């Protein structure tokens, strides 16, 4: 029996199991859909069984024939299939074979369409669908309570140290628990240093052993590499750009090149003009564990007009989120923040403008970015009038931890940012204690107490 005959036999056996034993119907439909059956007759009968089952009607040949167009013609076929089905108990094996045949069929169909395709965007979309067809990510993964808590118990019992994504910033490393499959936002004003910070983060993750892909929609990979080298070698970027290294620079530069090609190795792709599906398909093909997209407002969506940025960015955010979850890839999406707000404080001659620090509402064009993110970082100059000033770094969203704001020393010449040690502050300590007390009081205020009243109690209104 060749592969085609075996696939047909498995499909007929799955149908036969459902016809012979109604208990097999929900088992089959947990994994398969009518479109998974490549044989037209099997597909039609499966759709009829699903229709009858969902309607809550008795499942027998009469009701199934009634749900089929030209149903009487299917009677001999159904009788044969019921007789030839080897064993109802083997339905799980039939399901697995049908699923495998369905994935192969879809892949071959997409390959055929690809041979007739001459549009690059359509080709990228077909490539994405091919990857999904083979990976089987179109089905909803699920875990029972027993499976979930058993896995959690075994994980904690193992005593191993949990691995979360490193960022190269001590506070972010300590306070966030980002993992593969999460979506992380990095927002900043134009020229605030978000690209530099993302390079430093990617370097820390590559050094930790992750396979990182960096998709730059704005900056040439060679320029990014020069910035990376300046940071690693602690050589002024100006000397690299002018190709005017001093004798004392060369040893450090050579060491940085070796580290950049080895322990801090990550791939930079020039993605200007690419769509979100181009990037996710490419990332899937290269097997990246973490990808950076610099930045989302520069991305396009195939087939969508760009005259409504809010709708486009919303779609981009949702697609990146789905990609992260379905492929277990961490997505770090850089995004522009709206222009900083300024408010007047003081009165009379003491009036002055004060820049309001950005918040999660500052993400440009779409609140969907805020909603989809598991973790969100924000960066902005401490002195809005001096772009060479220190940078403020804020964990603006942290689903599984606390939010913090810290100061980063910024050295534009050597392309470095380092977290400054936070000085002990009595005011900050009192503020933290006050927040803890408020939290405790809120928790107590929402607690409900119950007290049993007997029939003899004076306070019992029903006595």
In short:
The protein is an alpha/beta fold.
Would you give an account of this structure?
The protein is of the alpha/beta class. Helix content is 47%, strand content 13%. The protein contains 17 helices and eleven strands. The protein has helices at 3-20, 24-29, 40-54, 61-67, 75-84, 91-115, 120-135, 145-157, 170-175, 194-207, 221-233, 237-241, 249-261, 276-286, 309-327, 368-372, 426-445, and strands at 183-188, 212-216, 267-270, 290-294, 330-336, 342-345, 352-355, 375-381, 391-398, 405-411, 416-419. Helix 3 (40-54) packs across helix 4 (61-67). The protein is elongated and about 90 Å long. It starts with a helix and ends in an 18-residue tail after the last helix. The model has no long low-confidence stretch (mean pLDDT 82).
Question: Over the alpha carbons, how many angstroms does the gyration radius reach?
Answer: 30 Å
What shape does the CA trace take? elongated
Helix content: 40-55%
Name the beta content range: 5-15%
How do the strands line up in the largest sheet? 3-2-4-5-1-8-9-10-11
Mean pLDDT over all positions: 82
Number of helical segments with 4 or more residues: 17
Annotation, overall tally of beta strands: 11
- Unreliable spans are none
Roughly how many Å apart are the termini? 81 Å
Largest sheet: 9 strands, mixed
**Sequence of secondary-structure elements:** HHHHHHHHHEHEHHHEHEHEEEHEEEEH
What class do helices, strands and sheet pairing give? alpha/beta
